[in-house]
Amino acid sequence: MAFSKRGQIEVTFNWIYMVIAGAVILLFFFGLVVKQKQVSEERLSGDVVQVMSSILAGAGVSEKTKNFIDASGLADYTLYFGCDAGVGEFGIKDRPARTQNNIDPIFAPREIQTSRIVTWSLPYALPFKVTDFLFVIPSNVKYYILGNDADFVNVFLDATEGIERESLLDLHNIQAEANQAVRLIDTDGSSVPGSGVPAQLQSFDDQKVSAVVFTAKNQADFYQKQGATWRKLNKGAIRIISLGGERDAAKYAAIFSADDQLYWCNMQKAFKRLEFLTEIYGGKELALAEAGGKLQAMITHYQAIPGSECKGYLEDYDLNALEALARLHSTTAACQQLAEHCLDLVDAAQKLKEVNANLRIYCTPLY
Is 287 exposed, middle or buried (0-12, 13-18, 19+ CB in 10 A)? Predict the structure, then answer.
């Protein structure tokens, strides 16, 4: 009897052992499958980020060009764009794959999930060309432009052919589709500030409705829907740092940027490059209000030509290239330290533009 009981215990023990061992083996293989799936997804997301980075890099150097990208294969992924301290980041949401860039300004929504993307680049000059601004525009965002600046409205509609956009005479006449995100462009601050969210948009998710508002002070304000009201995102003034023009890259960048932080962070990339370019034209000696680089080469050349007034335009006259370029250089450096100084860039760039116009007439232009 004792032997029989011992045999039963051994059989029971063996059975339990086999169950546990089997469970461990199953868990091992299940974990292996999960891990392999995770590795495959991470590898795929890395490939996606790499391909998209190449596409964006190519689009960024194609000046004044729109590219229509079929992204139907990426429709299940949410792409995200971020920027902090002058360093941009692009990747796939909830995936480790990402890439960073501190050189190229990219203006986009925070997140994109769509089957078609439009990329568009415009040159940014202050006063010489600094870089190309790249706009990333998803097909499921519709831009509604309104306000009393008829010239800007007409130019915008002409420039953005192929992009979902529409002009409105009255904000409350908007008819948006439920599956679209909405971006309002108030050209003069006469429509969005002080008004509520139109009834037609109040059922939309807050994150799908936003606005950018321009004022006569060449300023942009960013708004996000919050229920039936508008929430202003920027606490301080966001200035449009540009010399204007028909297709003002800095102004268009505000239109296609998610918010003030993403906009200004990418503008800082342009200012950093501007400082570098001033040193190409005038040398690092500009920090001491002295000439170097291309400017010094021009001064040396014209000093050897008797009777030439060009040296005057370069460094002697009240309005001269050395002083204008040195001011632009110092203002650019100050702008990167404190945003309040950035508005001074406009006047500094305008002065250099005037000097260069004189050089173009009488001598050789600086740029």
Answer: middle
Tokens of 278: 């001033």
- Statement: residue 37 has pLDDT above 80: no
Q: What is the DSSP letter of 312?
A: I
Across the range 309-316, mean pLDDT stands at 96
Q: Hey, CA dihedral for 75, 78, 83, 89, is it positive or negative? A: negative
User: Which residues, other chains included, contact 102 with Cβ-Cβ below 8 Å and sequence gap of 6+?
Assistant: 86, 87, 88, 269, 272
Closest CA to 88 of 333, 215, 269: 269
Q: Percent of the chain, pLDDT > 70?
A: 86
Let me know: does 82 contact 89? Beta carbons within 8 Å: yes
Model confidence pLDDT, tens digit, residues 331-347: 999 999 999 999 999 99
Q: Which of 46-50, 193-197, 205-209, 234-238 has the weakest average pLDDT?
A: 46-50
Which distant-in-sequence residues (6+ apart) come within 8 Å of 176 by Cβ? 142, 144, 182, 200, 201, 204
Sheet holding 79-84, edge to edge: 98-101, 87-92, 79-84, 111-112
Quote the tokens at residue 50: 């790499």
Are the CB atoms for 97 and 81 separated by under 8 Å?
no
**What CA–CA distance (Å, rounded) separates 347 from 241?**
10
What is the Cα–Cα distance from 242 to 221, expressed in whole angstroms? 16
Burial 3-28 (b: 16+ CB within 10 A, else e): eeeeeeeeeeeeeeeeeeeeeeeeee
Task: Give the per-residue pLDDT at 4.
Answer: 55
Name the pairing type of β-strands 129-138 and 116-125.
antiparallel
